[in-house]
Amino acid sequence: MEAGLDPNDLLEILSNRRRRFLWRLLRRESGELELNEASRRIAAWENGVDPEDVDYDQRKSVYNSLRQFHCRKMDEAGLIEFDKRESVVSLGPERPEELKITVEPDAENALERILGALGVASAIVLGAWGLGLPVFGSLPLTAVLLSLGMGAAAAVFVYSLVMRTEFQLSLADALSRVDS
Question: Are 90 and 110 members of one domain?
């Protein structure tokens, strides 16, 4: 891949399902395949059948779109090399070993879940204390409230750690989940 490939351009290139399948296939197959074989395997994925069960029309549709459009676009971006004369595709020599994307936590969802969990836990603890159930019923109210406060403080601490953490995810893993 070219060193200067913009992340938005990369995502645009890999936004097409057939291009993602081709890229994934090449990464799994040590980087080189005949276009005919790649087309058969991609048609199998698309149609949910074994590669041996792909019919001529299914394979030909994939082959034509790869040959006429997708391989050229991926080759120009440096993701693959496409030898049109030999009908062979291979991974581009300049691509990094592993493309990574940074995933930031969803602060709004995380906060809602933490507050919801705190509310449920508080209701259970206070309900158990109010009903005099074992363990909780024998505690004075101040001990129950202190326990709830410590739980809330721990939840806030965990929330703040999660919000400051950036998670690295391989682009290939993220894209494969899109196609699952």
Answer: no
Q: Is residue 176 part of a domain?
A: no
Q: What is the 3 state secondary structure string of the chain? A: CCCCCCHHHHHHHCCCHHHHHHHHHHHHCCCEEEHHHHHHHHHHHHHCCCHHHCCHHHHHHHHHHHHHHHHHHHHHHCCEEEECCCCEEEECCCCCCCCEEEECCCHHHHHHHHHHHHHHHHHHHHHHHHCCCCCCCCCCHHHHHHHHHHHHHHHHHHHHHHHHCCEEEEHHHHHHHHCC
CA dist., res. 159 & res. 111, Å (int)? 7
Asked if the model's pLDDT at residue 54 lies above 80, the reply is: yes
Structural domain containing residue 152: 106-164
CATH number at residue 49: 1.10.10
Average pLDDT, the chain: 82
Regarding pTM above 0.85, the answer is no
| Residue 176 scores a pLDDT above 80 | no
Are both 24 and 87 inside the same structural domain?
yes
